[in-house]
Specification:
The protein has 273 residues and is of the alpha/beta class. The strands form two sheets. A four-stranded mixed β-sheet has the order 1-2-3-4. Strands 5-6-7 form a three-stranded antiparallel β-sheet, covered by helices on one side. The chain contains ten helices and seven strands. α1 packs parallel to α2 and α7 packs parallel to α10.
Length: 273
């Protein structure tokens, strides 16, 4: 990653060359997250796919944090494989996921076993060899199927979801000492924030330490944050209404003012929404 914690096409080409020089072999697969789990930064997936194909290496698009929440076009990206996480981004039960590939790779990836039992002569022709163990069954599969109509519709609201994300981050940055570690403005609804210079300072002198923030938030009906975390932590606004996003911002700023932190409300740039 570069100094902005983003993986570029040029860096990918350099890594391919380094591996080739070190091992004497060409990489067999290149995989990259569109948005990573740590910062949810947007990496140059199209540029990386182009570099991969220039070296004749297949490219796997990891959409664990994108497939199911935003539009993803595998053809436009020029991906050979697209992977999605059911329980991370598709409103599905765990453990589940989806895999898509091209006509070129489908016969190999989705091949079924050709074995025949030497004693029973039993055939297992529907067993997909490359899917280790069994694929989805029962309630997990039904849960994923049930999520499809909602997921199919909600991806079209991605731009609005990102606006909410930026509204919340702007609200946190308006608090004295607020800092964001993810790229900014946000291109995703998941963000990594640094509150070590505001809420953590309060925690150091509070009898509840870092849990004071959890206490304050839960008293306002807000749950789900990392309990006890007041330094570096992650949050996600996806699926919240504008009313709830505003409420969260007002609550954080209200807590800050309660403990004598300065809040610059003029930074709420998206407040007109």
């Amino acid at each position: 990653m570069n100094e902005h914690n983003i993986v570029t096409a040029d860096a990918t080409a350099e890594k391919i060359e380094a591996i080739k020089q070190e091992t004497g072999k060409m990489s067999v697969l290149i995989m990259i997250d569109h948005s990573d789990y740590q910062y949810a930064n947007e990496h140059d997936v199209k540029g990386i796919a182009k570099v991969a194909h220039q070296y004749d290496i297949p490219f796997l698009y990891n959409g664990a944090y994108t497939v199911g929440v935003m539009p993803v076009d595998g053809k436009e990206i020029s991906a050979d494989f697209v992977v999605g996480s059911g329980h991370k981004s598709m409103a599905s039960p765990a453990p589940s996921g989806v895999l898509a590939t091209t006509d070129e790779w489908a016969p190999k990836i989705f091949r079924t076993t050709q074995m025949v039992g030497d004693v029973t002569k039993r055939k297992f022709g529907i067993k997909e060899v490359e899917m280790l163990g069994c694929t989805l069954m029962g309630s997990t599969l039904i849960g994923m199927m049930a999520s499809f109509p909602t997921v199919k519709n909600r991806v079209h609201n991605w731009e609005e979801e990102v606006k909410k994300s930026n509204y919340l981050i702007d609200g946190l940055l308006a608090i004295e000492g607020g800092k964001i570690l993810s790229e900014y403005p946000r291109k995703h609804t998941l963000s990594k924030v640094d509150t070590s210079r505001n809420f953590d300072i309060i925690a150091q002198g509070h009898k509840r330490k870092g849990f004071f923030l959890s206490d304050e938030l839960s008293s306002k009906g807000i749950v789900g944050e990392f309990a006890g975390a007041t330094r570096v932590w992650k949050l996600n606004t996806y699926g919240l209404s504008w009313e709830k996003v505003r409420y969260v911002v007002d609550t954080f700023q209200g807590i800050a003012e309660k403990y004598k932190l300065q809040v610059n409300r003029e930074n709420d740039s998206n407040g007109s929404k």
